[in-house]
TrEMBL record:
Listed SUPFAM superfamilies: C-terminal effector domain of the bipartite response regulators (SSF46894), CheY-like (SSF52172)
Keyword Phosphoprotein: yes
Response regulatory domain sequence ranges: 3-118
Pfam families: GerE (PF00196), Response_reg (PF00072)
Alphabetical UniProt keywords: DNA-binding, Phosphoprotein, Transcription, Transcription regulation
Superkingdom of the source species: Bacteria
Residues where 4-aspartylphosphate is found: 54
Segments forming domain HTH luxR-type: 147-212
UniProt source species: Streptomyces thinghirensis
The organism's taxonomic lineage, starting at the top: Bacteria, Bacillati, Actinomycetota, Actinomycetes, Kitasatosporales
Alphabetized SMART domains for the sequence: HTH_LUXR (SM00421), REC (SM00448)
Name of protein: Response regulator transcription factor
Length: 213
């Protein structure tokens, strides 16, 4: 069973998420939090597999809560967002979130995303990834610019894969573009994440955009 903690301050939205998650035979709602402080406290107590985290919550915002949950290795975080909150999403990804979802995501896609993040892949809807990255690219970067020297340890192939991640491509799409097996792409992704000390391919996509590769 995949144990999920739902952190959302709007009770109606939270109830809807709980209902959807509870309908899946392989997913269990471990707890519910109405604010960021409670989300962190429950993550410490319950040790869920995934925290479904809203970005705007009282007492402690979702970005700060994500940073704490990730820093303490309490769970993987899947961020809930709307596109008028790009700066918050960017902060959450930099804080170590494994992925993100739009609040109007269909039920089946929500369940698939939770399973994906719980499985360690951290990729959610490549098309949405591309749109989000485009939104970031259109705005001034508020975070410090990434240091290009972080790429020095990457092989040529790993840099090519990182560039593809920056476009929001899936493993299958990267395999087709670079003419390699999908399993090989997964290996390259895992290695470059390790070398760059990143938790997810979404973080890698943002880094690729920051570095302009």
């Amino acid at each position: 069973m995949i144990r999920v903690l739902v952190a959302e301050d709007q009770s109606a939205v939270r109830a809807g998420l709980v209902l959807i998650l509870g309908s899946a035979p392989d997913i269990e709602v471990a707890g519910e939090a109405a604010d960021g402080e409670q989300a962190v406290a429950l993550a410490r107590e319950l040790r869920p597999d995934v925290v479904l985290m809203d970005v705007q919550m009282p007492r402690l915002d979702g970005v700060s809560a994500t940073r704490r949950v990730v820093a303490e290795q309490l769970a993987d975080v899947l961020v809930l967002t709307t596109f008028d909150l790009d700066e918050y999403v960017f902060g959450a990804l930099r804080a170590g979130a494994s992925g993100f979802l739009l609040k109007n995501t269909e039920a089946k896609d929500l369940l698939a995303a939770v399973r994906t993040v719980a499985g360690g892949e951290g990729i959610v809807a490549p098309a949405v990834t591309r749109r989000l990255i485009a939104e970031f690219a259109a705005k001034p970067v508020r975070e410090p610019t990434a240091d290009p020297s972080v790429l020095e340890d990457l092989t040529r192939r790993e840099r090519e894969v990182l560039s593809c991640l920056g476009e929001g491509l899936s493993n299958a799409a990267i395999a087709e573009r670079l003419d390699m097996a999908e399993a090989t792409v997964k290996t390259h992704v895992s290695r470059l994440l390790g070398k760059l000390a990143l938790r997810s391919r979404v973080q890698a996509a943002v880094l690729a955009q920051e570095l302009g590769i």
